[in-house]
Amino acid sequence: MKAFTMAAVLAATVALPSVGMATDLEVTHWWTSGGEAAAVAEFAKAFDATGNHWVDGAIAGSGDVARPIIISRIMGGNPMGATQLNPGKDADDLIAAGLMQDITDLATAEDWAHILRPASQLESCTKDGKVYCVPVNLHSAQWMWTNRKVFTDLGMEPPKDINELIADAPALEKAGIQPLSLAQGWPVGLMVNDILVAQAGVDNFVKVYKDRDLTIAGGPEFAKIFETLASIRQYTPADKMVPQWNEAVGLVIQGKAAANIMGDWAGGEFQVAKMVAGTDYDCLPGLGVTPVLNTGGDVFYFPKSADPAITKAQLELAHTLVTKEVQVAFNLKKGSLPMRADVDLSAANDCMKKGLEILDHSSAVFPNDIQMIDRDSLNQINDLFTEFMANPDMAAADAQAKFVAIIEAAPK
Question: Which pTM value belongs to this model?
Answer without folding.
Answer: 0.80
